[in-house]
Every structure is written in C-alpha cells, then in structure tokens.
Design goal:
Elements (H helix, E strand, L loop, with lengths): L6 H8 L7 H44 L4 H26 L2
Helix pairs in contact: 2-3
Length: 97
C-alpha cells in the first residue's frame, strides 16, 4: 500500500527539536515573511467573501421586489435586512484587520 502514511514516523518528524541560537535567527525572517503572506492572503479572502455576500444580498433584494405575496415578501425582506446588518458588522471588523 504505497499511499499509506505511517503515522508514527510522521509524528516523530513533527516533534523534531526547534532550531536554537544562530539557526533560530536564520529561520525567523523566512517565518515572518510566510506569516505576512498568509495574513495578507487571508485579509484579501475575507474582503472578497464580504463582497460576494453583499452581491448576493443585492440579488435577493431584486428577487424580493418581484414577489407578489406581501406576507412572503415581508418575511423575505426581514431575512435580507438581518443579513445586511451582519454584513455591515463584517465590513466594520474587516477594516480592523
């Protein structure tokens, strides 16, 4: 079974000692760079998700305008309003990232 991962061996590799002294200083800039890249990518992904959810809410508003039953439309509008308020909170929190 060539695709089987031997867990014991992988777990032992993961517990390798962390670098000390000069070796630790040599690794630090690389780790900092990787962290900054991941942080930037995460912020971009969050902003894109908020944008897509905002577009979905706008489409839902357009659909609500086409509903003929006033009761159903009111319930739908309430759900959309709730979603829009949560999106506003998400936008505000995204600014703090």
């Amino acid at each position: 079974m060539p695709n089987v991962v031997k867990f014991r061996m992988r777990a032992a590799d993961a517990q390798a000692p962390a670098p000390h002294g000069q070796a630790a200083y040599a690794v630090a800039p690389e780790l900092a760079s990787r962290f900054a890249e991941l942080q930037s990518r995460t912020k971009r992904d969050i902003r894109n998700a908020i944008l897509l959810l905002d577009l979905a809410a706008q489409h839902a508003r357009e659909i609500a305008m086409k509903m003929s039953d006033p009761e159903v439309r009111n319930v739908f509008d309430e759900h959309i309003a709730s979603i829009e308020s949560l999106l506003q909170i998400a936008r505000e929190r995204a600014l703090d990232l």
